[in-house]
Structure prediction request, 317 residues.
Amino acid sequence: MMDGSLQDGNDPQNTGKPSRREGFKPLPGLAADSKSTYLTQSEGEKLRRLIKGTVASMTAEKLSTRYDRGLEHDRLYEKALAEFRFLILNPRTRAASLRAFLEHELPPGRPNYVKVLFLETIARQLGKDWVSDECDFIDVSIGTARLQEMATSLSMELRGSPHSADTPSALILAPYGEQHTLMPHLIGLLFDSLGWSSQVLEPAASRTGALARALEGADVACIGWSNVRLAKEFKTLVQDIRKLRKGSRIPLVVGGAAALDSIDFLVSLGIDCICDSVYSAVKICDSYYELERISQQASAAGKTAVVSPGGIDWLTP
Prediction:
């Protein structure tokens, strides 16, 4: 799922209304080492093979873009993280106070989606403290519950905005029996903040007709998997997605503690990408969507698209 402070001259500016293009330059990033990528037809399996060498190899050890490492490594966020962690663990802190902190106490001039990364960092710190016995079960329960409540509330507000017909859509889900659903809700919120349409399917719903309905309009699917004992349920979920998906093959992006410990297992299932942060997952999904969109345009025009660090060139037959 970069070294030094996240502050530099290339930071995206906060322009107010979030945009799905904000902060992303996926196409130059995909053409690694200045090599061009050729796209012809919009055939799912061909596209997956094409991307595989560039995207699927980006496992947790290799991802190194600016926000993947976590805001805890940015000195400008040290004070805000400590103060917010105290507030969110205090049962007397009102939800309105937590929202106000996000709006007014974070370093200025950052894009809106950094607020989501801030919440993810708090969640990750709570998890590390739990593992190292620096906080108890009550603290973790209070903190994660309040973070998920915030993520759900913020997502509902963003999803109230109208979307155009060509807005990309993400499905976020978890295997049956998974009890840790905070990260799926945070990744849904990050998609929403970047202008995508998203749907978070609760684990129990993955064995109902809701899964087939949710897959109908999804461009990508993200699976959160934290409990390694649910490997069988995870495999069943992947099989169900591929069986129920109509039309083109949907890219599958996976993250979570169990995923990072089961890379060989995931590769054997044909998972397209393994990520260790919500930002990594959304950025990779954006790249998949862009490549599919370009492929469709090339197929409709009878041309070949060449994706390179300089942009897109269209070649006639």
User: Anything to note?
Assistant: The beta strands are 37-39, 169-173, 197-200, 220-224, 252-255, 273-275, 304-308, 311-315. Residues 27-315 form a domain with the Rossmann fold fold (CATH 3.40.50.280). Confidence is low (pLDDT under 50) at residues 1-65, 305-317.
